[in-house]
Amino acid sequence: MAAVPESGDKRESDGRGFDRGVHLAETLGFYEAKEEPNKDAGQNRNLSDLSLLRFISAELTRGYLLEHNEAKYKERREKVYTCLRIPRELEKLMFFGFFLCLDAFLYLFTLLPLRVLLALMRFITLPCCGLSDGRLLQPAQVCDILKALIMVICFVMMHYVDYSMMYHLIRGQSVIKLYIIYNMLEVADRLFSSFGQDILDALYWTATETKKKKRAHIGVIPHFFMAVLYVFLHTILVMVQATTLNVAFNSHNKSLLTIMMSNNFVEIKGSVFKKFEKNNLFQMSNSDIRERFNNYVLLLIVCLRNMEQFSWNPDHLWVLFPDVCMVIASEIAVDVVKHAFITKFNDITADVYSEYRASLAFDLVSSRQKNAYTDYSDTVSRRMGFIPLPLAVLLSRVITSSTKIEGALAVVSLLVFYFG
Length: 420
Known about the structure:
16 helices; mainly alpha; 70% helix
């Protein structure tokens, strides 16, 4: 009968010198001998196993492998790369959208007067040429004449607004009150832009729709006066914005300018923690393009007014230059941070900005076709909420009041610059 081994006998060892009941655990290249789980050993476990030295030793030698969750770490790396690509892709979109707004803005000063001139020549030569399609003027020509009339009337009305009195009235207010006023003006500007395009579209459609249909409007003249009132009020609003910014530039301690710049960073808090789809991000990008172009025009107005006060001394321009650069840099930084975190939190790739550029380019091409249903400047206004009429009226008013054109040589130089 085979002898039964006693419980106190040792187990046979393997070739490495460890017991068969012991397995090896690797921690950072070190082998640690651990016994296999055993009920008797677990019950008779000594409290010395829970010593502080064993805990420190385990913490110093334990290891882990990132390959066990490879998909998560790859996703995190792609998010980092996306955030790094956002500034370049966003600025490409902003650059393209800026020139779209600039094109629509300069259209009012370059092509629109020539188109109005052609429309008037057509109207004058009607007795010789006769009517075509039963219309005195084409719908596009009617819209061009209405735009020109609105600009001229609002430009004349702006001469009755005293900029100097408005500047000193705003300058006498406290810093906190001016900060609140500027925030209210920003909100009012967006509301005016949203509702103003509807007023202008209603005027254009009322003036050009066929007379065969049953009349369902209040008439062209009431719509025209509504449009003139809107453009005039919006111009006054932008003028107050420019005046407030001018006061911030001319303040001694620059505290108001700092507060107004810090207001841009509050925009991050209200945007990055919201749910955004691609269409919502596109609308916000268009709004940022319009806001940036408006700020550039406001800065131009501020520089013109300050240069006029210092008799166009070039040295004063270098005094304004650091503040102008600071405002522009803060605007760019806020846009980059805002879009970077929105794309990160909503899992949107940086390639979406290429799609946005393609959409804006499609609007540009569509407005140039023969079957286009609207003018290009109106398309930009609807897409971005950018209405160039108030800015054009205000800039014309500031330029004419800040510069003096005297003599035939100055007139000839102005004409060469315009047609060149």
